[in-house]
Structure formats: structure tokens, C-alpha cells
Amino acid sequence: xxxxSVSGTPAGSAEYAGxxxxxxxxxxxxxxxHLVYLLAAHGVEYLFLNPGTDSAPIQExxxxxxxxxxxxxxxxxxxxxxxxxxxxxxxxxxxGRPQAVFVHxxxxxxxxxxxxxxxxxxxxGVIVIAGKTPYGEKAGPSGGRSSAIHWQQDVPxxxxxxxxxAKWTQEITRPEMLDRAVGRAVQVAASAPAGLSxxxxxxxxxxxxxxxxxxxxxGYAVPAPPAPDxxxxxxxxxxxxAAEAPVLVTSRLGRxxxxxxxxxxxxxxxxxxxxxxxxxxxxxxxxxHPMNVRNPAEAAAAIxxxxxxxxxxxxxxxxxxxxxxxxxxxxxxxxxxxxxxSMPLWAYPADVAVQADGAAALTAIIAELDKVxxxxxxxxxxxxxxxxxxxDRATAPRQAPAVGPLTAAGVMLxxxxxxxxxxxxxxxxxxxxxxxxQALERTRQGTLVGSAASxxxxxxxxxxGVRLAxxxxxxxxxxxxxxxxxxxxxxxxxMAAEWGxxxxxxxxxxxxxxxxRLPVYSLFPGGVSARxxxxxxxxxxxxxxxxxxxxxxxxxxxxxERAEDLVPALRRALAALDAGRAAVVECVIxxx
Length: 592
Ligand SMILES: Cc1ncc(C[n+]2csc(CCOP(=O)(O)OP(=O)(O)O)c2C)c(N)n1
Ligand SMILES: [Mg+2]
Hints:
Largest sheet: 6 strands, parallel
Distance between the termini: 51 Å
Structural class: alpha/beta
Number of helices: 22
Helix content: 25-40%
Radius of gyration: 25 Å
Bound molecules: thiamine diphosphate, magnesium ion
């Protein structure tokens, strides 16, 4: 179990250790030093920092504490805020531990951009700390206003920038509230459903002497996610036992080893087809498992034909445009937040809604089904027959074409040849996401990661965060060309070198925004755009030279236009990666 670096108590422990267990706060001189100390004491390992005039007391605090031998988070410079927030988000996904991102007042908060949406939708535990313009009017040791920007950055509602997305916001206005504000920030961010804690603090408060009276880091327990109601578990198991065509739809059960193992166990036990992942997200069941329904049309057909739908940890289980449920279908919905009030028009049907951790619920359902099978051999036979027929349909892995023009599927098949089962793929492939889902083999838990949300530009920062969390693994981002550019590649590749977190990026270059062109055709099938085979604002005619961009940012660059060039290019890029250097492989695929 992870232990808190200062007090030695289990981090996230559900037990209240009591104030007596709290360590003595070291001699800190400023509220900023107290803040940095508290972050480390609460287990925050990294502080991603884009500094401004507001952060000066924090910057000084880090060195002062280090010289005094007091643990601090490791500070990582950030040259673009959205990149570091995506990194912190990804770090949470891999470790379940919230990290801190410092941004400059309102301007830095604005630069977090769409990554704030991703954090909310993917339920990631992260702490953003933003400076606030000083309250004091005169410059001096109290930290008061010293520059024109300190008037310009005085805005009516700084937290309002993120209020629609943050789980919790708080301004630290007095030193005596600091320990509670930081304890709550960590607790709120990490508790399920996890989310964004947004703290603001002005420079003059950071300069204030600390208030250490009764300061404590213990007593901010992160609650264990709820276990399912036993009566609901019995209903789900009973329905699965009686079902003729059940299906499990899940988007994120595979985020934990427990969830991944439970999906496989239930699929094997009940002969249950498994689908989901419309939002992206983790691999929930090995792609080689015969019950993994990877083809979107087959998934829609399985859900349309199902009499029992077990919907676990999924926000978008199917598209109503493609799925019409059977009139007699029963939907059992399990989620730590099954009502999803943050999506105002979320109206998927649920006959039984169970508020519970998905993995815990599946484990309980499996235990209940074991009892049913033991008591009723007819159920055991139905399950075994269904499992056998699904196993019979399993297909052999496909080979990458050796020659010819590159396709997205061909790129995935080539990746299957050159990457290892433990390598972690970070995916942001947009219109090619279904191709990845069907062609890329990911057999192990945690080896496919996506933002599971719609704010593009996540993959590069995400890859940095994954590599930070798993320095023992190779990390490979697979992105659209548009998504690559949204990811602020000059910053992300520079950070790979600064932080020592190299990753490989595979760009699926289809010449621009295909996802923004196809809806023009489908909404106006007889329209001018469809006739011209073009839609304004969607094609890149002056895209950067991607390998040259990589080279300018200390990374190895390759371009492949044909299948015969791809595997050698990928192997050279992986060799660079293994030698500690980031790499970019541009794959030129068809534009349509
Ligand atoms: C931050 C952000 N801006 C704009 C969009 C709208 N959008 C969705 S898909 C897309 C195009 C993505 O292009 P690319 O990554 O090349 O993938 P492709 O569509 O070509 O498959 C855009 C602009 C978005 N989702 N997020
Ligand atoms: Mg594209």
C-alpha cells in the first residue's frame, strides 16, 4: 500500500487516523511553504508549474523547504497549461493519485482549455491551484500589487472559468484555512466520482506567516466507493440467469485491474458478449477474447437484440440512432453516479439503477451467479453453450499488408507487429477510433488509455503523464493530425525532453479534420459540399513538416507513405524511444 511520505499513514485510508497521528509541521516561514509542505504530506508527488508573478512565494518555498530537508512534490516546468493538465489527468488514470497543476491567475486558467472538460467527463482526480491577483495595493514584502497586470488580472469571477466543470472550488483567503483547504482539495478530487479541485490563492496570502495552530494532514479520508445493494445484485444475477440474449456494455470497467479481471470472469462464466467504449477509454477485455465485440455494427446489433442489458460505468452506452431496444429489454445500470446530473439530458433507460463501484458490483454479481449455477444445472448449461458458440466465432489475428498505400487499419496491424503487450497506447484517433478498436490488439489491462472525452489535444500531454507514472513502459500516442496540433506539440515534445518522459507519437495524417467534414455530407447529402467532395475549414493545405517539427523539439522524426516503409520507420522510432528520445512517425493515409 502506498504510504504518505511524511506521516507514514496509508494514503486514502478510509479510517480517520485522528489528529494525534499527524506529524509535527516543520518550521515553515510562509503560507506558501506551508502549502508546498501540505501537498507533499498529502501524497502529491508532482507539481506541474507554469509560473507567473503570483507563484513567486511558491517557487521560493520549494527551494527553501528542500534546503531544510523537508519533502516537497517534484516540480515539473510546463510551457503550456493544457499539456500539464492532460499529464496530471493521465497520471491519475494510471495511479489513482491526484497531482497538482499550478497555473497563472485567470489567464493560465483559461489556457487549461478543453482539458478541463476531459477531466470532468473522465472523472479524473486532479488539483489545479491558480494564483489570484494580490489584494494589497502597494508592492513590498507583503506581496502587494507591483505591476499593471495586477489590476488587469483582477476579474469578477476567476473560479467561474471552470465552475461548470470543477467538482469543487475554494479560495484560500486566510492562512488559518490552508490545511483544511488542501486536505479538502485532495479528498474531493480523489473521492468517487473523482474530479477537479480548483484552489485559488493570492500572492499576499502566500506571503503571510503560516498558521500552524492545530494544523493537520490526517482526517481527510477518501471514502471507499459504495458497494452494491445486495437485493439489486440478486435481481441482476436472476435476470442474467434467465436471459436468452444478455450483453454487458461498459466503457471504463477496465480502468482498474479488479474491473478488468471481473469483466473477463463474468464474460467467461455467463457467455456474455462485452461491448462499449463509444467514448474511448480503456481496454475492458482482451481484444483477443472471443466475447469482446469490437465491431460497432455488431455491438449495435447485440444491444438491439438483447433482453438483458447490464450497463456498467458507461456514459454513452449506445447511439439511439443505431440501436432500438427490444420492447421487453431490461436495463440494469451500475455506476458510482448512475443519475449523471452533470449531463442535463442524459436519459438512457434504466429499469434498475445501482449506485456502486463497477468492479465491486460485478464481483458481487459473479458470486451470486455462482450460487445460481450450483443450484440450477440448466442455467449452467445455458451459460456454457453460449460461451462455446461465442468461442467458435473467434477469428485469427490479421496481418499487416506488406506493400501498398497506407491505411489506418494497416498502421494498427503494423503496430501489432512492433510493439509489446505491455506497451501503453494512448489513443486520440477521432474518426479512426473504430479502426483502432477493431484492429489494434491490446490484451492486457491498462495498455490502452484515452481521455474518454471530447476535448481534443489530450494525447500528447496524456502520453507524458502515462510515462511519468510508468517509466518502465513504452508509451505510444496514436493521434489524428488535427488532434496532434491541438496537443501543442512544441510544448509536449519539449516537456518529454525536460521531464525525461519520452514517448512515440504515431500521427494518422489524413490531411485535416475528417470528423468535421463528414457531418456536412451526412446532413446535406444533396448539398454543395457533398457534390464538391469538400467542406470548408476542414483540410490542411499548409500542415507542418511533422518530422521536421519533431526534430526541432529534440525528437526523432519519420514519415511513412506506403506500407513497405512503415515497419522499418516504426522500428527506428522505437529504437530512438528506447534510447530515451521522443519520436514522431507521420503516417500519410487517404483523405476522403
Ligand atoms: C478542443 C476541440 N476543438 C474542436 C473539436 C471539434 N472536433 C472534433 S473532431 C475534430 C477534427 C479532428 O481531426 P483529427 O484529429 O485529424 O481527426 P480526423 O477527424 O481527421 O479523424 C474537431 C475539430 C473538439 N472536439 N475539441
Ligand atoms: Mg485528421
